[in-house]
From TrEMBL:
PANTHER family: SERINE/THREONINE-PROTEIN KINASE TNNI3K-RELATED (PTHR44329). It comes from Rhizophagus clarus. Gene3D superfamilies: Intein homing endonuclease, domain IV, Transferase(Phosphotransferase) domain 1. This is Protein kinase domain-containing protein. Residues 137-405 form the Protein kinase domain. It holds the Pfam family PK_Tyr_Ser-Thr. GO terms for molecular function: ATP binding; protein serine/threonine kinase activity. It comes from the Eukaryota.
Length: 470
């Protein structure tokens, strides 16, 4: 879903999404009509704001028609092929991109083939990965060091493809665009599986708007380093919660969880695993987006090591078992706790062997007083030590939607306030909260801790939280 810098429109679009009953609005057409009617009935919007909101909904409707292959096809007046999109022709867009293959090259056949393959899967004009010449990027400024990438902000002179111009039969660009550059290390040592994964994730990020868009790749000619060129957003979930947590009601907290779980469902729907979910990789700009899919880790990761942010890594992965969809579900549970508390998990513990042992032995973040029972039970199920007892993403998505719909309809009781809020135990350095390589030996098989073991672990800790009523 595309969003604009208008809080009234964004709020209306969010409300229309939150109130969808998927048992009733069970296809893309019904959901579109429901959301459109909600916008038209929204008295908080001006006439122009309603028009803009419906334009955004229609843009998203076109995308969903192609993703789910639903709707009546029409004959394109330009190429005479059957197309599903209403506001453009997907075949015209792909043909335009194909004709231009000869006009660009990265100088690396693998990269060229990767990008061309992705472009031939294009389903909408505004989600197209491409090779971006380095001289089209200006105002490059160092921002930070990620787990295995250096991060810069910059301006992309041309900007991304924005829409299809029927009259001129070409893609139109946005113009100067603020972007983030992520310098990839050791790509020259990347194996075939890394390139396959890169292709998969580029396709995902340019198919589902819930994933931070990767506009493509560029290369610094001074050192040969490849860089991902990505959409620049405002902040990440961790900082967002630190700044806004005390103002959030459970209605708002659950909506955040819904957005994140919805985004992960898109990734799992593509038969892909994120592998590195944590609050620093969930970005915000009017809504939440998933970022840093698995291939942003080290291309030459040692076989016996694991990569990630330790408190969010599933216990079976910590002991070096294979990552699965259920590993992502564990990470979601930890994120659900973080949304409930406003703080990163285990932030007052070193992210070391001792913490790894505790996680494998079933220690989990202490549940916050006042957490809604339905939310609490779902979170506990998702962080079970046995992956087979965790729900799959589609079951999780259905359950969190049901909880959310109940809250939107105000049929659940809001928790009481707890005014004994103590921040003392949540002041560790941010350096603990990035993804990195870990290697732990001689760990036991994962298990769930007893209530007594949980209490003993936290016996010397103070966990008092304040959650406002709606």
């Amino acid at each position: 879903m595309s969003y604009v810098k208008n809080q009234s429109i964004n709020s209306a679009l969010s409300r229309s999404f939150a109130l969808i009953d998927y048992n009733i609005h069970n296809d893309v057409h019904k959901r579109y009509e429901f959301r459109k009617q909600m916008v038209l009935n929204d008295e908080s919007l001006t006439k122009n704001e309603k028009s803009e909101a419906i334009r955004i909904l229609t843009k998203n409707y076109d995308l969903n028609r192609l993703i789910f292959n639903e709707g009546t096809k029409r004959i394109c007046e330009s190429c005479a092929q059957e197309c599903l999109a209403i506001t453009y022709c997907e075949h015209c867009v792909r043909n335009y991109l194909k004709v231009n293959f000869s006009n660009w090259s990265s100088g690396n056949d693998n990269i060229d083939n990767l990008l061309r393959e992705c472009q031939m899967k294009t389903i909408t004009p505004y989600l197209i990965p491409e090779w971006i010449p380095y001289n089209n990027i200006k105002n490059i400024k160092y921002l930070a060091k990620g787990g295995f990438s250096d991060i810069y902000t910059a301006t992309w002179i041309d900007g991304y493809f924005m829409e299809w111009d029927y009259k001129e039969q070409r893609l139109k660009r946005f113009g100067d665009q603020s972007v983030v550059l992520k310098k990839l290390r050791n790509v020259e040592n990347a194996n075939h599986s890394w390139l396959e994964e890169a292709s998969s994730h580029l396709t995902i990020s340019n198919k589902w708007p819930e994933v931070v868009q990767c506009y493509g790749l560029t290369q610094d000619p001074s050192n040969g380093n490849y860089m991902l060129v990505m959409n620049e957003l405002d902040t990440d979930l961790r900082k967002y919660l630190q700044q806004n947590h005390n103002q959030h009601t459970w209605k708002e907290k659950i909506q955040i969880a819904v957005n994140i779980i919805d985004a992960l469902s898109k990734i799992h729907n593509e038969n892909a695993i994120h592998r590195d979910l944590h609050s620093g990789n969930i970005l915000f700009k009017d809504k939440f987006f998933l970022s840093d899919l698995g291939f942003c880790g080290p291309a030459d990761k040692p076989l016996k090591s694991i990569y990630g942010n330790l408190p969010y890594i599933a216990p079976e992965v910590i002991i070096r078992k294979e990552q699965t969809y259920k590993s992502d579900i564990y990470s979601i549970a930890i994120l659900m706790w973080e949304i409930s508390s406003g703080y990163p998990p285990f932030s007052n513990y070193e992210h070391d062997y001792n913490l790894a042992v505790n996680i494998v032995n079933g220690i989990r973040p202490k549940i916050i007083p006042g957490t809604p029972l339905e939310y609490k039970n779902l979170m506990i199920q998702c962080w079970d030590a046995n992956p087979s007892k965790r729900p799959d993403i589609f079951t999780l998505w259905r359950k969190i939607r049901e909880i959310n719909l109940s809250y939107q309809n105000e049929s659940l009781t809001q928790p009481e306030e707890n005014n004994n809020f103590d921040k003392e135990n949540y002041t560790k350095s941010d350096k603990l909260f990035t993804s990195k390589l870990h290697q732990f030996d001689n760990l036991p098989e994962p298990r769930n801790a007893t209530e007594e073991e949980q209490e003993a672990f936290y016996s010397n800790q103070s966990y008092n939280f304040h959650i406002p009523n709606s």
